[in-house]
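Board notes (copied after class):
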Amino acid sequence: MKNSPLLFVLIFILILSLIFSLASWLEFYEVGILKNVENYPFGAEGPVAGLWQYESAKNYTIYNLVLGILWTFVSVLSLISIFNKNLKYSKSLIIFAFIVYVFGSILENL
């Protein structure tokens, strides 16, 4: 790649998307598959009261599944953009990663 600042941004997006993806998949696995819900404040009062994903374990599982899929998709697209010498889609990837981040923030605060 000739454009090293863009390569740096793509690597940064890859690292962040892998972290977010891993965190979402681990939460999905913990709550959705293993059914370990005793340490989660589902239906509780306090700072998480009113957030839809904490109303039930099912909502929390769906929330983490959706974000896990989206961040995994961003990770794959980042890898493709880094290993593909053509930077044609890199700007679109940056915009898509930003949209996924904003979507996750909106989804979190519904």
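Comment from the instructor: Residues 4-33 form the longest helix (30 residues). The mean pLDDT is 87.
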